[in-house]
Write the structure tokens for this entry.
Amino acid sequence: MAPSGASDGLYPPGLSTEESEQLVSTIKDWSIAHGLAVRPPPTLVSSTADPHVVLATTVPVTLFPSPFPRTCFEQAKSIQRAYNQLYAAIAQDEDFLRDIVQEILQVDEFIAELWQVHLKVKEEGYVQSLSLGLFRSDYMVHHSTENGQSGIKQVEFNTIASSFGGLSSQTSKLHKYLSSVDYPLLGTPLSPQSIDLPPNESTKSLAAGLKIAFDAYKRAEAIHDCCVIFVVQDTERNIFDQRHLEYELQKQTPSVPVFRVPYSKILSQTTIASTPLRQLLYTPPHKPSKVFEVAVVYFRAGYGPSDYPDNSAWEARLQIERSNAVKCPSILTQLAGAKKVQQVLATPTESSSSSILSQFMKTSTPSEMETLQDTFTDIFPLDESPSGLSARKIALDPELCKSYVLKPQREGGGNNIYRSAIPPFLKSLPESHWKSFILMEIITPPPVHNMILRHGVIEKGGVICELGIYGTCLWDQESKEVLHNEEAGYLLRTKGDKSEEGGVAAGFGSMDSCRLV
């Protein structure tokens, strides 16, 4: 981010050295006191300096809530239930997903392995028909140069490990606190009434989705207490985000037992009962005499190839998938979040993409489907179809490629290839591998300024904001009935306008909240 030349009267207001120091002091202490924190990265604190992993640091966060168009915010929230319904329907359509997988399995080993897990369980027979989605649909505001209008365009739809719900609600609380305590005392004061901060109950809402699945789980015999397990990465820096959901579940009456299971420990800490229902049983390593029946498995790991370093990792995923626990997500739901699915939905066809939407949204009106379509940006395959061949020409053109981003099927930040880096990247790969990527037109957001506190240092200048809307959805895979479908709060991530990626955990973005304008 370049140094800001913002003067008093602009938003955010210019700060004196003393004002900056006061805000930073407040943010640092409030964040640690309220769990708006992460484990410090090794570049900040080495493992020798923190051998027992006890340190925490303030998550990168903006000093002020960023301006965000009210109409765009309300539009994103209003269509989340429709998006939940859409992706639940996609997860139920095995034939559609098979066609998607068949297109890329030869060049995407990870997708192919996920599909094999599904086929193995299908052959044996699924015992659990319920499926839970804790989704997040990510958008950016696109400012049209043709008509001057602004609207939201979808960046991606996340179906596994949709993170930061726990930290997002804390960020909203931080900015609300600052608007009451610190902003009114600035040289250019901001009153609480001048900052419209929408409520954000993402922690409670996401935990409520897990609780609904927990309550819907049916056990044959009341032999063991039921629990929820969070499947996590062995070394997780974003632990407090996850803990907020865990603590919220434990506030329920009665309390919901929650246990964290590192992905590498699934096979040693869980077993499948030798019964027709194939209950998933969990034995806490600190209490080996106690056995829990797992009602819900919530994946905060398992979304990328690095979580599957060997065959035992795939055996672990198979063990969970074939069990009676409600999965969040199931394999099919995870595959529904592949970028190829987003591309198929968004790429215009001869019969128009609305016909593809109507395949999954049979109860929706044309206007409801049009509302969803309006959030699509131009996305193209890189296969050998007419659309794919046209997209290849764009991707290889040194000038045309500057308006696009190349995306693999991966979840998580740091995987995308931008603008002028696209042609040399594609040329480094065999052409047969190109079809595992999609080409997306880069969204052009309106200019916004803010200040980001990262590792104790303030960065000032132009920023780009990405809005995520959470959703919770529980459905029956056999009957196709949607049992629960709700919007579940929001996330705003902000990055410097010179940064391509926006992932906070990947080290690019920062937490933020919306000031509606």
Residues 2-8 have pLDDT under 50 and may be disordered.
